[in-house]
Amino acid sequence: MTIIYVFPAYVANAAPVVASRLIGRTHPIDRRSIFIDGRRLLGDGKTYEGLFSGVICGLFMGFILNFLLPPLFRGIIEILALVIGAVLGDIGGAFLKRRMGIPRGRAAPLLDQLGFLAGSLMLVAIAVGLPAWLDASLLLYIAVITLLLHVGTNAAAYFLGLKDRWY
Ligand code: CTP
Ligand code: MG
Fold it and tell me: Is 165 a residue whose pLDDT tops 90?
């Protein structure tokens, strides 16, 4: 299962939604600062609580998978890159959305669903190189499955009352 490889990134992307709800009082990473374009640097949707919960839960998932399915990752650096790349990709996506004038929480199709995945795989590529088995068609497969899963899990989170919007 190819998708198992990016599962730590999924967890890193999903944990903040739950964590921010559980914690309640959250602190925006941009400290409410305004960028030169007059808009928020990142917005209230990217918080320290989300960042830390994403990294911790993503790493935890990575270590569990690494233990259960040994040759899956080539080492701790690869897991770290998958997880930190996912979190950075998500934050980078918010930065781009704000620069495009899209308010926090409003939809940016594809960027919302795939930004974290792009960040994750890019940091893996930089840190240890993409795995040899991950060819172009598998990348496309991962992107399509991620898109569908993201839409599905977000809709589920909406119905569970974890999110205010279905997308
Ligand atoms: N979240 C967080 N910290 C992060 C990432 C996410 O607290 N670093 C929480 C926020 O409560 C956020 C929710 O997870 O609202 C869903 O994440 P996401 O959809 O990425 O954020 P949006 O609210 O849609 O904001 P943006 O438009 O900036 O993407
Ligand atoms: Mg969103």
Answer: no
**pLDDT digits 0-9 by tens, 55-85:** 999 999 999 999 999 999 999 999 999 999 9
Burial of 131 (0-12, 13-18, 19+ CB in 10 A): middle
pLDDT higher than 90, residue 3: yes
Q: Whole-model pTM above 0.90? A: yes
pLDDT at 1 over 80: no
- Would the CA dihedral through 21, 27, 29, 35 be positive or negative? positive
CA of 45 to the centre of ligand 1 (A): 4
* Sequential DSSP letters for 23-44: H-S--BTTTT-B-TTSSBSS-T
Residues composing the chain = 167
- Residue showing tokens 């990294």: 55
DSSP symbol at 44: T
Structure tokens at 25: 């009082």
> Does the C-beta of 97 come closer than 6 Å to ligand 1?
yes
Helix (H, G, I), strand (E, B), or coil: what is residue 77?
helix
Q: Using a 6 Å cutoff on CB, does residue 30 contact ligand 1?
A: no
Return the number of other C-beta atoms located less than 10 Å from residue 150's C-beta: 19
The reply to whether ligand 1 has any atom less than 6 angstroms from the CB of 20 is: yes
